[in-house]
Amino acid sequence: MSEARDNLERVQHSAIFRWAQLAQWFGLAALLVAVLLGFFSELTQTPRGITLIALLGMLGLLALVPARFILTLHLMKREQKP
């Protein structure tokens, strides 16, 4: 069990893992801001507002999906090594 824990700690200290975690949180925050702006503001009344909300949502997805993919692959790769 301690061997698995050591591998996990080694993975968590790698640069790509930290970058992917930051990208994941940024994507989640961007999606949350887009949803909140869409529901609770008057930005949906103008074409510029709709464009802003759509861009924030797309930016959030573009950050979130690759970050989760990187995190999953990076963890799987580390678990397969002896």
Describe the structure in brief.
The chain has helices at 2-12, 15-40, 47-80. With 82 residues, the protein is mostly helical. The model has no long low-confidence stretch (mean pLDDT 84).
The overall average pLDDT, rounded, is 84
- Whole-number radius of gyration? 18 Å
Secondary structure class reads: mainly alpha
Count of helical stretches: 3
Cα separation of the termini: 13 Å
For the biggest sheet, the summary is: none
Could you give the count of β-strands? Answer: 0
Strand content: under 5%
Q: How much helicity do the residues have? A: over 70%
Count structural domains: 1
Overview features:
82 residues, mainly alpha, 3 helices
Overview of this protein structure:
This protein has three helices and no strands. The protein has helices at residues 2-12, 15-40, 47-80. It is rod-shaped. The mean pLDDT is 84.
Helix-strand layout with pairing:
Layout lengths: L1 H11 L2 H26 L6 H34 L2
Helix pairs in contact: 1-3, 2-3
